[in-house]
Amino acid sequence: MSDIAPRKQERDYTKEVDELLQQIEGESTASAKVDRLLVLEKQARNAADLSSTSRLLVRIIEISYDAGDFDGLNVQLAGLSKRHGQLREATRRMVDRAMEYLDELDKNGKQDQRLKLIETLREVTEGKIYLEVPRARVTRLLSSIKESAGDVTAASDLLQDLQVETFASMERREKLEFILEQMRLLRAKDNWDMLQIVSKKVNTKWLEEKENEDLKFKFYGLMIQYSLHTDKYLDVTKHYRALYATPSVQEEDGKWQALLRNIIFFIVLSPYDNEQNDLLHRILKDDDARLQQLPDCLNLAKCFTTPELTRWPRIESLYGEGLRQTRVFGPNGTTGVDGDIEEEINAGQGEKRFSELHKRVVEHNIRTIAKYYTRITLKRLSQLLDLEDSVTESSLSRLVVEKQVRAKIDRPAGIVDFRDTNKGTYKVLNDWSRDVGKLMALVEATSHLIGKEHAIAQAAKQRAAALKA
User: Fold this and answer.
1) Domains of the chain from N-terminus onward
2) What is the CB-side half-sphere exposure of residue 97 using CA atoms within 13 A?
3) Which residues have CB under 8 Å from 106's CB, separation 6+?
4) CB–CB of 170/164 below 8 Å?
5) What is the Cα–Cα distance from 240 to 256, expressed in whole angstroms?
6) Pairing with 333, which of 33, 166, 195, 269 sits 20 to 30 Å away (CA)?
7) What is 38-103 written as a DSSP string?
8) How many Cβ atoms are within 10 Å of 245's Cβ, its own excluded?
9) Secondary structure E strands in 227-381
10) For the segment 427-464, what is each residue's pLDDT rounded down to a tens digit?
């Protein structure tokens, strides 16, 4: 077991190591060379000679590899790492050298030996904090091999065991790459809930750095896929806005136009609430100059900010054909920027989103009608919404439940009442106080008038008495 704290070096074996390395060149077999090196390795290790121990460990595995003794290589790696009092840094250097062989074995087509070496390295690095980064790297290689073999579940499970966000010795960019790979594999196995949990590990401020721009596109591409899967269109809008703010996107017309279109499409698809309404107005204000270059998108967005009726047949005739040619509303149901940002997703969802747009237009029209009408017949309301009576009633009921409008339907009379009959406690108290105030003002005015009449009558009597006298 390795020491908790570094030991003080008792002796320098540099000279002995140099001499022995020259002497073993005359040995005929690799095993003979290794045996002689192991003797000196024990002495250097017990003397806490880090430099000499590291050289010997590295040379031992090099001899096994050069001789093609891959089984011996794995045995030496496992055995040397478990030696009593083995120096941590020496073990780390040996592991780093062994990892270099993984690429060489891959290039030489020796996949079986490569897989065995990966398993040995995972065994050697298990439970050792000072080897957590090498373990993460070989685990990622093993995960890649599993995925290539078609076992996506095993590949994902291997990576999920790595808590790379806690690795102090790993570079921040590499951590991001590992987390994104975890998310990608979770996406591949349709584990959406876990993907959302893992995404919380990413600090989005890191993604704003220029050198991490490629990782930013990968992250938000995955988050867009998750949000689309859960039909969270407002979140999709926010993710697209984050990509839209990227400097490289702003400089390329094709990209910012495609992203801005998707931003408009998904913000109008988002269910109405204060956040959605505020974001829609901010988009129109902040990006007004660029939206002027996309007149169809600008006019479509303004339909939802203007307190006027937006008839669905008119929307469909003006924008329907163009919308169905886009990736959001088209028959293939894809999103993205010419495939650069995200892969095809939710095939066949274009028609669903087009129906969702119709629903948003109806909801906007109901809110608009509620501003101008206190009472309206259900038949007339259906005419204004271009819907059947039953659909109108269900749409209105949904908005009432969501507290977007206040209304009551008198079914026998076929009348919709938009007056606020469901007053809250504070509103009732305020109305009562206001009514009492009005009442007291009327009482005071009436008392004043009565007193005035009495005074006039009294003055008239006095004048009459004076005239008689």
Assistant:
1) 203-368 (no CATH), 373-435 (1.10.10.10)
2) 23
3) 114
4) yes
5) 10
6) 195
7) HHHHHHHHHTT-HHHHHHHHHHHHHHHHHTT-HHHHHHHHHHHHTSTT--HHHHHHHHHHHHHHHH
8) 13
9) 375-377
10) 778 888 998 999 999 999 999 999 999 999 898 888 88
